Amino acid sequence: MFNAFERTVAFRYLRARRGQGFVSLIAGFSLLGIIIGVATLITVTSVMNGFQTELLARFLGLNAHVSVAPLGGPAIADYEPIAGRLRGVDGVTRVVPVVEGQALASAGKASAGVQIRGESPEDFLARPLIAQNLQLQAPGAFAGGDVVAIGRGLAEKLGLGLGGKLTLLAPGAAGQGEQSAGPTARAFTVVAIFDAGLYQFDSGVAVVPLPAAQSLLGLKGVSRLDLMVRDPDRIGEIAAALQQAAGPGVRFFDWKQALSGYLDIVAGQRNVLFVILSLIVLVAAFNIISSLIMLVKEKGADIAILRTMGASRGSILRIFFLAGATIGVIGTLAGLGLGIALADSLETLRQWLQQLTGTPIFDPRQYSLTRIPTEIDAAEVMLVCGMALALSLLASIYPAWRAARLDPVEALRYE
Fold this sequence. Notes:
It is a single chain. Helix content is about 55%, strand content about 15%. It contains 16 helices and 10 strands. Helix 2 (about 20-60) runs parallel beside helix 12 (about 315-345) and helix 2 runs antiparallel to helix 15 (about 380-405). It starts with a helix and ends with a helix.
């Protein structure tokens, strides 16, 4: 498409010469703008993807794909037959009876509100996010009576370690047809400390064996049944079978319903950020237009001489188009490399800046994660690079057309 003569002239025009440094300076700013815009877009979209993927993975790793809750009551009293029928549904991999309630946890002078979660030891330890980062006092320690497993955040907040004593104060059994016996307090021994990587879970949940939770909260039965399925994305295909197996008196809600608000917010934020950050590339494209127009004005005599020597309008157009396209291509490729490098090393960079400044840059209490997650999506990277290239090429068309339309006689006359 471009012959050797056109490439040589275009690249020569991009190099600064004496008295022409201002044009090259504007071209340099255009190049820098495209680099920063592409790198920023890739980094930001990677962080947004990482947040969504990481939070979704941890939510599904710690919570149910589908939950079966009582309809019009605090607990499912006769839950074993329902759980047995649900286990027989094709696609269900595990059914976990859960008791849940609120309590006040205290150790010495420190206290914090927590969510009590009662599960069997087998179900609790079967969660990969729990098992892979778990400090256990002794094998089988969680199978005892008054024992508790707490997150690392809650342990640090209350100053507890393995073997420490934690007192849980829970309300009585109101709402089950019996008069509430008032708040119930019981001391538990910390036998496990987990680090699931989700701040709200690590700092606000205390897991106790199922019978102990039922006794502490005064529940006859379980609060809900948590179901794990083979393919969480296709949960709707087995919804009818689950409803039939569970029977009347219960209601279902899946992970999509629980996270619907969050997923909508993330999608909206991603679209808004993409549009806003795309303006950086758009401004750089306008800089390409201005730098090329100034280049055409400065090279008017050169264009006239080239035309008198036999260069066609098409050749002049391709020379200046190639000059603008070169800025766009180099800027896009450099931005691509910088964006991928930043996305891969963002957490390391955050830790270094945090140590250098001594101030927290990423607060896990606000973002629910203990580290900045990133996930580079090839399709989004191609979209960003394609947009930058398209804007750069479009910005090069008008100045190149102006150069090709320049009259050699008029250019030499006023030169």
